[in-house]
Amino acid sequence: MNLLDAKEGEEYIVKDIMSDDEELKSFLFSLGCYSGEPITVISRLKGGCVVSIKDGRYNIDTDLAQAISI
Questions:
Q1: What are the CA-CA distances from residue 15 to residues 8, 27, 61, 67 (Å)?
Q2: What CATH number did the domain enclosing 64 receive?
Q3: How far apart are CA 46 and CA 31, in angstroms?
């Protein structure tokens, strides 16, 4: 399942980043979003969702959320 299927407030573990775009993977890695790391959906927005990764909160769009497998 991907991040769009996640319930708000529940912590999940990132399994994989489903993308061939190395720049996208590098960007997510810089945020601390990589395999084995916990991630929590804080809230959903029209164009994506707000997630908590480590000590930060980030607004990610729908395409990015679909690429994150949990």
A1: 18, 16, 19, 11
A2: 2.30.30.90
A3: 22
Work out how many domains the chain is built from and give that number: 1
Q: Write the pLDDT tens digit of every residue in 12-34.
A: 999 999 989 999 899 999 999 99
Provide the strand spans (E) within 1-70: 11-13, 16-17, 38-45, 48-53, 56-61, 68-69
CB half-sphere exposure, 32, CA atoms < 13 A: 13
Domain region containing 55: 3-69
Predicted confidence at residue 59, as pLDDT, reads 94
Max CA distance (Å), the chain:
29
Amino acid at 68: I
User: Considering only CA atoms, which of 17, 5, 14 is closest in space to residue 64?
Assistant: 17
